[in-house]
């Protein structure tokens, strides 16, 4: 069983729209982006949060892969090498965010928060584009993980540092931080 199977319920019950297909392809690479950034920055700085969350991101990308396979969608991840992406957008984000995170440990943790901030925003958008139960289940689980990861990165910022959300609203960010660690599958 692929680790991501635990985040997926149900069977393929419908034909997907083009938006749903694009969303799954995007999230497969976006979850790989998070994984690869955390592996790279974890090796650079030796900060435990990166290795811990990289494992979760692998489970997330595996969950999206289960859906791609279930619906017969071509997997955009043709090379699992860290830092290699099919999408030029993801390739550019990887390059830019790693460069930012290599400046300092503080910058690396801010990059981690930024990646989770982006994931939360994108998952909200994608959830509004589907009514498919198994896709919504995966997106809800991924978003819950991203909220937990965002809390973790913000908690690991050095004293006197703060993260200002780049993609979600300040109100949503404040609500996430004031919430507690979320457990279990959605």
From TrEMBL:
It comes from the Bacteria. Residues 20-178 form the DUF2202 domain. SUPFAM superfamilies: Ferritin-like (SSF47240). It holds the Pfam family DUF2202. This is DUF2202 domain-containing protein. It comes from Candidatus Nomurabacteria bacterium CG1_02_43_90. The lineage of its organism: Bacteria, Candidatus Nomuraibacteriota.
